[in-house]
Amino acid sequence: MHTDQQLLLDRLRLESTGVPIYVQLRDQLLSAIGEGRLKPGEQMPTMRQVAVALKVDLNTVRHAYGELERQGAIVIKRAKGTYVAAAPPKTDPDDRAHLIEGLSLRAIAEARSHGIEPAMVARRILKLSKGG
Amino acid sequence: MHTDQQLLLDRLRLESTGVPIYVQLRDQLLSAIGEGRLKPGEQMPTMRQVAVALKVDLNTVRHAYGELERQGAIVIKRAKGTYVAAAPPKTDPDDRAHLIEGLSLRAIAEARSHGIEPAMVARRILKLSKGG
DNA sequence: TGGTCTGTATGCATGTTATACTACAGAAAT
DNA sequence: ATTTCTGTAGTATAACATGCATACAGACCA
User: Fold this and answer.
1) pLDDT band at A132 (very low <50, low <70, confident <90, very high)
2) How many domains does chain A have?
3) Are A91 and B114 a contacting pair at CB < 8 A?
């Protein structure tokens, strides 16, 4: 197993906020893909590796991976492993605007719920995304 | 019922992402408090109002409100209603920087996972947050 | 006093989540 | 051929989430 994958596994976190484990895992892996820590065509940690790393049941991990596959983010190959999909799906303009709106509102709400100015988050995003 | 409360109710949204209803509600109400749409000492929408507005069961709303009370964000008074707590807890500067970083990275990742430029999200956040 | 509104509580039913355990089948290496 | 690793599948169990229905008790007002 690559140390890249070990780094990825080390970054997976579970929180007890009432959000199901498979949902947290699904979203964190989607983030890893989205921010290029997992590249198209690259192999992901196996379900068993994730299950061991997070100390959860294999079926729980499978549930998360199953949803990622249904989203088109990954490709699961029986007996071989699981791979990041070759081309992440593009969004069309209408969907895009909705997505931007939703992402923005969510980020704003979350910032404010912690007493943080959303503009500070926005500026940080601009700074980080230029560097990326 | 005040139109303020109606506006608040109108902004509550439920999504089918696998996150339980009570968690979504809890977090959205926490946002409303965090962004000043609900002020310390102010009465919240009643559990029944929220249940009706969101078309969910009273017990589900009660679950969310119960968690907010345990967090110290609200005070529930039997037979009278529910109120925003007098002094919402503050975040200290170290935590703040971490929170901003985390929120930003998460927003970036999610944008990218949908093939969206994070900067577009950032600009939308700036626009929306200025509008109040 | 009666009515209305509020949060509180309970029972039942259904579906979901997560775990543990077991086993199968395919792919690859020895 | 055997072993190891992989995803796939099934079963049973317990806890959780939600809805529905019902009822209680307190607060408030006419």
Assistant:
1) very low
2) 2
3) yes
